[in-house]
Amino acid sequence: IPVEDFDLVIFGGTGDLARRKILPGLYRRYRSGQMPEGARIIGAARQDQDSAVYRKLIGAAIKEFVPEKYRDSKSIAGFLELISYIVIDAQGAGGWSDLKKLTRKDVVKAFYFSVAPSLFGDLAERLHTYKIADSQSRIVVEKPFGRDLASAKALNAVLAEHFDESQIYRIDHYLGKETVQNLMAVRFGNILFEPLWNSQYVDHIQITAAETVAVGSRGAYYDKSGAMRDMVQNHLMQLLCLIAMEPPNEFEPDAVRDEKLKVIRALDPVNSSDIVRGRYEANKDGPSYLEESGNPDSSTESFIAMKVNISNWRWKGTPIYLRTGKRLRARTSEIAVVFKDPPHSIFGKQEGRRGNVLAIRLQPNEGMTLRVTIKEPGPGGMRLMEVPLDMSFADALGADAEDTPDAYERLIMDVIRGNQTLFMRGDEVEAAWAWTDPIINEWQERGDMPKSYDSGSSGPEDALMLLHKDGRRWREIK
Ligand code: NAD
A single Pfam family, by name (predicted)? Predict the structure, then answer.
């Protein structure tokens, strides 16, 4: 179903994110017929070039970042016709009057701030001064949304000067994943799970976002951030909220976001003994974190594992273990809900028995698996075994799965539709920083140093111990 007619201005339209994600995503939506005929996409950046040159750049980006099976010359040509370019300086006066002339009245206007956050204020201000944005316009802002509570508050304040909260779309692409929305469908669309979704039946929850890539050329930038700021404060926290929140009374933006916010506010402060930080060592495939960061005195972590407790009626006593890092064994993101054992085994002691686990895979191969116990087939008596009930979305949806939008595509279309459900609200972001800040400050005060781990491993030994000491174990990173 096509969305309403729109003008989408991408500030930073020549940058890495625009080339790799935003424009290839828009192309795919165009190809699948979701874009109205009159839609306009306007790239805006400092580079002095015209629309023809910009279209070439985007054509090349589509070739590079869209798989061949989705590329056909007719769609690409049609898509490029929607695109124009304007030279603009976020901090200067040039280009703004031209942008005003280019954008239309009476269509949805969205402005994607795909630039450094230090420019957000300049862009917001000029969109108003030049009367380009109106009260119906939307702005999309990228991570990082601040580096601590104070800077996040300052960013929120600067945007609030010119835009209402209902116009601000803070992107966390994890929320655009099909599985993440399916998590809500599974939780709240079935009667089966929700009665068990509490500390009486759930032993613990594991949330893992493992990457194989190193910091690479982004080393100097990453060194000012680290895994806690780059991954936990936003992506992992958002997943935690969705898995732990109370049922909202309706699937509407504020109803959902109110419930997420309550989870963040219920998080206990974390003991330093419940956190393991790591940084990768060199191996034959690449240099160490220290070398890549270019900072021999670095105390930044490229890996973090932590145990988090939620102080509320539902979750008291059920820990949530978070883990994320770079240069790990495999690229995988999943949430695993590990259920308790039945209160009594009528089958006597059965060695190696493992309980029910609901695993929600975000990547690769989005899908869900529920591990259940059955009888081992055959005449061997009442011996139990576990089998997975597997729901891979690709299998379930068949050929249609190929056309499932990726996270960015879906989220940009949600902006045009005016649906904020999958975007972070300002108070959520601030609450997440308010929880993260004391942890980071404590490391700094203590001069905490990350532990080494082998590239291609599952992280530092101490991360394994974090669960072992509770009589639990991490799921394998594979
Ligand atoms: P980039 O450096 O590749 O591109 C920056 C863009 O901003 C360029 O188009 C540049 O011309 C433009 N720009 C810079 N200064 C400007 C000015 N004064 N006026 C107008 N335009 C100006 O950056 P990127 O990697 O595309 O990232 C953009 C934003 O998205 C950043 O905030 C980044 O943190 C965030 N982000 C990027 C990624 C990613 O994968 N690249 C992922 C998540 C978030």
Answer: G6PD_N
